[in-house]
């Protein structure tokens, strides 16, 4: 690695001593405009590919979260894997919730939970090994809710990439993405915590602003055909690519020497901003100019800052500053 990456390690005091609660990882997030019935096979293949690369064991993935209950954690033993595979299997019964007539309680439960299927896997002490898998399948209505997408993500500790090199890391990410029908997606450095929807921002907001290349979100469930920010690797699906004018038009507007635009199969494209992921460091004047250039080009299609969003116990306007860090 030619760029030194920041080591993010935050600990919390517990009766048993200090435990790790936040760290840095490499993360891939894909936004999928389909229901679970359409995604089951691809998600299973992607999970199998991920496991074949990272291996298995308690130091990698050791627990699963019971999102159907009270978010309790259970060991990822043989029984746990049976449950996970059943959750990821193709659904039985009616294709759409609208057509379920004989089980109103099931429909109400799904609506309350706001997902059809959800799987969350983590490992290591406190779930902070850096390895992780998350899948969230949207509710299967005959007419989908506006802009709602399904999500899948994969995480690796940064040490995994450093041991293999950024080229192999990128190849692994691209192979996973190729298995799934994404509308858009991204991969790069990110903060990682035991909460799948993001870390406690009061503990990391200063680092988030200092290192603009580290993501703090975990995908957007209501993204539609927009783009969730700018990252090391930026995957554009057919609808997004049409909006920006195609791969050639996009390439002609990007001039940073490290940026490449590659047309992919099935009318997709991949924008890579550097040979390896970068965190940047605003305190040293490194604002990631290639990231800023892509953000300006994609601004009409970027998900705008949600004005209801605020980061609890952080200085006013911190969330907006981070959201627009490549634009302002």
Description of the molecule:
It is a single chain. The protein has 328 residues and is α+β, with helices and mostly antiparallel strands. The chain has one domain. It contains 10 helices and 11 strands. A hairpin with a 3-residue loop joins β10 (260-264) and β11 (268-272). α4 crosses α5. The model has no long low-confidence stretch (mean pLDDT 93).
Taken as a percent bin, the fraction of beta residues is 15-25%
Stretches where pLDDT is under 50 for at least 5 consecutive residues are none
SSE pattern:
EEHEEHHEEEHHEHEHHEEHH
Mean pLDDT across all amino acids? 93
Count of distinct strands: 11
Total of domains: 1
- The end-to-end span amounts to 29 Å
Helix content percent band? 25-40%
Please give the largest β-sheet.
11 strands, antiparallel
Mind telling me the C-alpha Rg? 20 Å
Number of helices: 10
InterPro entries: TsiV (IPR021815)
Protein name: DUF3396 domain-containing protein
Pfam families: TsiV
Organism: Cystobacter fuscus
List the helices and strands and how they pair.
Elements: E1 9-14, E2 17-32, H1 36-54, E3 63-66, E4 72-75, H2 78-88, H3 104-113, E5 117-122, E6 132-137, E7 150-157, H4 158-164, H5 166-177, E8 184-193, H6 201-210, E9 233-236, H7 238-243, H8 247-252, E10 260-264, E11 268-272, H9 289-298, H10 318-323
Antiparallel strand pairs: 1-2, 2-7, 2-8, 3-4, 3-5, 5-6, 6-7, 8-9, 9-11, 10-11
Helix pairs in contact: 4-5
Protein name: DUF3396 domain-containing protein
InterPro entries: TsiV
Brief overview:
The chain has about 325 residues and is an alpha+beta fold. It has helices spanning about 35-55, 80-90, 105-115, 160-165, 165-175, 200-210, 240-245, 245-250, 290-300, 320-325; strands spanning about 10-15, 15-30, 65, 70-75, 115-120, 130-135, 150-155, 185-195, 235, 260-265, 270. It has one domain (about 20-325).
